[in-house]
# Entry
Amino acid sequence: MQVTMSKALIDQQNNDDALVASGPVIEMHYPKGKEGPSLRASKMLHLLVKNAGPRIEDDVKHEMPFGSLSAIGNMTKEEIKSTMLELVMTALELRGEEFGEEGVLFSPVLSKISRVCKEKDTVHYHFTDTMREVFSRSSFWALLSRDVLLRISGKYALRIYELVVLKQNLTYKTSEEFSLEDFRSRLGVPDGSFYRWQDFKTKLLEPALKDLNRTAGMNVSYKPIKGPGTSPVRGVRLVWAAKDPKGKRKKEAPFPQTGTIHYGPWGDLAREYGGGYDVDTIAAQFRKFAEARGFKLDAKEISKAFQGFCKSYKSRRPRL
# Structure
C-alpha cells in the first residue's frame, strides 16, 4: 500500500535528518529557458516543508525560527528574507494528468512571508493553494538527508540528488533517460548557458556529479545518448548505485517469498514488463522458476532477474 507524503511527514517528524520531498515537486520543470532558483532557495524549500510537517496541507501560516534557516550557508536575516522572497517570485512548472487537459500548471512555492516580533526572532510563511494541493496529492516522495542537503555545494548537484533519490524508491530502477531539452528544463539551466554539449558535460554535469558522489556517498554516472552515425548528443542517461558507509554498493531488497506484489515496486515492475498479465500470477511463476533454477530470492541483482522473467513471460503468451 502506498504511503502518502502526509503520512511520511508524520512518520519522520522526529527524525531530524529526514526530509520528505514531494515526488511531483521533484519531477517539476522550470519554464522553458528560465533559470531555476538559487541553491539557497532550493535548500530552504526542503527545510520549510520539514518545519511545516503534517500540517503542510492546511491553509495556515507556519512559523520558523531564523536560527533554523541560518544553517544554509550561515545566512544573515536579510539573506534569509531575500531567499524566501525568491520562493515567492519563482514559478515552478508542475506536470501531471491532475492539472487539467494541458497537464501543466505554473505556481510559485510561497504566497506570502512576514517577519514576526523581534523577541520571538521568527518568520511566518504560507504555501500557495497550488502547492498545498500538490502536497496533499503526493502519493510518491523521496526521503532526503538534511546533512547531505546542507553539504551539497551546487544547485545542479542538488537537483540531480533529488531526482536520483526519488527514482531509487523503485528498487529495480538503476538508471533513467532524459532528452537533453527535458534534462535542462528539470535542472533549470537558462537559455544561452552551456548550450554546447561539451560545455554542458564538462562545466555542469561532471562537476555536479562529482559534488553529489562525494557529498552523498552515492555512485551516479552518466551516458550520453546519441542518434545514428555522427548525430549530436540528444539525451542523457543517469546511472546510479547507492553505497553503504564503507563505499560498497548496497544489497537490493529481496523478492518476497510469499504474498501479493500488487503494491510497491515489484508490482510496478511486473506491470511495466509483464504485458498486462496478472502480477501475482507472474510472481508465483517466478518463485517456481527460481526454485527450479536453484537461485535464491535475495540473490544479487534479483530485480534484473525478475525483469528478464517478466519479459520472457510476456513473449511466450498471446498479446492481451
User: Anything to note?
Assistant: The longest strand covers residues 233-242. The two ends are 26 Å apart (CA to CA).
